[in-house]
Write a structure and sequence with these properties.
It is a single chain. The chain is of the alpha/beta class. The protein is built from 19 helices and 22 strands. The chain has three domains: 205 residues, 3-Layer(bba) Sandwich (FAD/NAD(P)-binding domain), CATH 3.50.50.60; 115 residues, no CATH class; 127 residues, Alpha-Beta Plaits (2-Layer Sandwich). Helix 1 runs parallel beside helix 19, helix 12 runs antiparallel to helix 17 and helix 14 crosses helix 15. The longest helix is centred in the C-terminal third of the chain and has 22 residues. The protein is globular, with a radius of gyration of 23 Å. Bound molecules: flavin-adenine dinucleotide (FAD). The site of flavin-adenine dinucleotide has 39 residues, from helix 1, strand 5, helix 16 and helix 19. GO terms for molecular function: oxidoreductase activity.
Length: 568
């Protein structure tokens, strides 16, 4: 144990479990532990809950940062059960879309990625009859995925009874052929076989940007889910989801402290092992705990909070081999929000990826893939604009390291690059929607450094790991190590660096950690549905909307978001 992890004050006599981070994983862990009679407290370094799953406001517009699709929006699906337990979707309508995404190339040629496999098949065949075999296979697989109720299981494998294991095996076994064929085909290889150049370049962009080393499974699974109403967009959007889970947590008796940055986990000797007995904050204050759960960035937890004392071969491989290789976590993202007083893009799909021409790709600062996503965010849910108008979200993958270097070594350059983005976006939008520039109230650019500063995620990675090898190792962290670290008692890890990226996986990781903890404390695990029935209302965002009449709004997080607001 290093001195930094030693306590300086008495730590005994508390039953409270401390959860570090009020992202979806931390909130979910808190809810499930409260449901099981534990007293918990969440420590969050920011002023709002949600972590990645957030939104903020400028000039009355709400800039919803996260959700493009939410797995588990169909009430008949098993992931919905988790959202229902967490009260995440109670009282909310869900929007679903006919097209998952539309891709337009630099010459204006369009491919519509419909979520209905029959319609998609017809459309793709009309573009490229010569690709009939591959198109028909893709759409056939999609239909088969639509029949599956895929979700991370609701209990981790080591805690499943034999009946649950048999049921899971019975569900998976008949699909092994499907998983083998689609999991064994990389999207790149699939595109290689396509004959039509338009299909070749548009297929990898189905999920908004090219995710690189993905097999066909995530594409098929997500589009199939969207077609079955199981990957929709909830009223209230990203922050709405986080705030609803927060309400559930507080109703269950949980406590959240904001503006609290945890700096170290405090340890004490326990026989040959150590055990976690609390945390030390950035300001030196110590808070005792009976157990500690970290749901924050994996690297920060292991290398900073615990000073690299509890590495295992699996963690060594992940953090000393796979991470430094590069390309195995999600790239950074530039996100641009535009708030304007005009309704634009009526009749267009909600989401389009534009493949840029060479000149545009050159002009758009640090654009990794020569394409940009445009989403009509204000059409995805009500309440994002103060009046008749639009919120447009544009996004593209970029290079974290460059933005990070400029921000720390050359701030004027960092700022200039952001201003260049604003200039580009203005002219790009003007071409699409003539006259829009006169109606723009605000343009805001968030870089991957913004994301890193706001959530602490390594490299500004939006969903943590992005590699099959890493995913296999995460399986071990959950099913072999049981979300704990050898030699360290009373300490657990959850969140997207442990369970894989996405909101449903983050939420399920909170459920798992509560299940393991119950097991270790010899308690049976229990869960129940939220019976909250109130309708969603924008006051629940907790944002200081200029149009809001609420008295109970919290501070806007303007001081923590490193963004640029165009001078209009
Ligand atoms: C732009 C974007 C788009 C996305 N789109 C989708 C989508 O469409 N669908 C989907 O399913 N998923 C999507 N995701 C992924 C999803 O949002 C994440 O996988 C998920 O929210 C991760 O939750 P988490 O709780 O594990 O981690 P985080 O959200 O990172 O939460 C960690 C929390 O810990 C806090 N924290 C960090 N350090 C400390 C500290 N030292 N002390 C105290 N608190 C600390 C942070 O402030 C944060 O609140 C998207 C993510 C992003 C960023």
């Amino acid at each position: 144990m290093t001195t930094a992890n030693k306590t300086t004050s008495a730590t005994k006599g508390t039953n409270e479990i401390l959860i570090i981070g009020a992202g979806v994983a931390g909130l979910a862990a808190g809810c499930y532990l409260q449901m099981n009679g534990f007293q918990t407290r969440i420590l969050e370094r920011h002023t709002l809950p949600g972590g990645c799953c957030t939104a903020w406001t400028r000039k009355g517009y709400v800039f919803d940062y996260c959700i493009e699709w939410l797995n588990g929006t169909d009430p008949d699906s098993s992931p919905y059960k988790v959202w229902h337990e967490l009260g995440a979707l109670n009282g909310k309508s869900i929007k679903t879309f006919e097209q998952f995404n539309r891709v337009i190339d630099a010459d204006g040629q369009t491919v519509n990625f419909y979520t209905d496999p029959d319609r998609l098949e017809q459309h793709l065949l009309s573009i490229s009859p010569e690709d009939e075999r591959l198109i028909k296979n893709f759409c056939r697989y999609m239909r088969r995925f639509q029949k599956l109720d895929l979700c991370p299981p609701l209990a981790p494998i080591p805690l499943m009874g034999w009946k649950q294991k048999l049921t899971m095996a019975a569900e998976i076994l008949p699909q092994l052929g499907l998983f083998w064929r689609t999991g064994g085909t990389q999207m790149d290889d699939f595109c290689e076989q396509l004959k039509h150049p338009l299909l070749k370049k548009t297929f990898p962009l189905i999920l908004m940007q090219d995710h690189g080393n993905f097999s066909l499974i995530p594409y098929l699974y997500t589009m199939a889910a969207a077609g079955s109403g199981n990957a929709g967009f909830p009223e209230g959007g990203s922050l709405g989801l986080s705030q609803s889970i927060t309400r559930r947590y507080l109703d269950l008796g949980g406590k959240i402290d904001y503006k609290i940055k945890v700096d170290r986990v405090l340890l004490e000797k326990d026989g040959d092992d150590n055990r976690a007995v609390g945390v030390r904050l950035k300001n030196g204050r110590e808070i005792p705990a009976s157990q500690v759960i970290s749901t924050i960035d994996g690297h920060t937890t292991l290398f900073h909070l615990l000073e690299e004392q509890y590495m295992t071969p699996t963690l060594d491989k992940l953090y000393h081999e796979i991470l430094p290789q590069g390309g195995n976590t999600y790239p950074g993202l530039i996100t641009v929000f535009v708030g304007c007083r005009k309704k634009v893009g009526e009749g267009e799909p909600h989401s389009t990826t534009y493949i840029l021409n060479e000149q545009e790709a050159e002009q758009l600062p640090e654009c990794m893939q020569g394409s940009i996503l445009l989403q009509h965010r204000s059409r995805m849910a009500d309440g994002f604009t103060p009046q008749e108008g639009s919120v447009i979200r544009l996004a593209y993958f970029t290079y974290f390291d460059r933005w990070n270097r400029w921000r720390s070594e050359d701030k004027p350059h960092y700022r200039r690059r952001k201003e260049e983005i604003v200039t580009f976006i203005r002219s790009f939008l003007e071409k699409l929607y003539p006259g829009i520039n006169d109606t723009i109230d605000v343009i805001e650019v968030a870089t991957p450094v913004t994301m890193k500063r706001y959530t602490g995620n390594t490299g500004g990675a939006i969903l943590g790991w992005k590699s099959e090898e890493a995913d296999n190792l995460l399986d071990r962290l959950i099913n072999k190590d049981k979300m704990q670290l050898p030699g360290l008692k009373n300490f657990y890890m959850a969140g997207h660096w442990v369970a894989g990226g996405s909101l449903i996986k983050a939420a399920v990781s909170g459920r798992y950690v509560a299940q393991f903890l119950c097991k270790n404390m010899n308690r049976s695990f229990d869960s129940g549905f939220s019976n909250y029935q109130g309708a969603w209302h924008p006051d629940q965002w907790g944002l200081q909307l200029e149009r809001s009449t609420s008295e109970s709004v919290q501070d806007d997080e303007a001081d923590v978001l490193e963004t640029i607001t165009a001078n209009i």
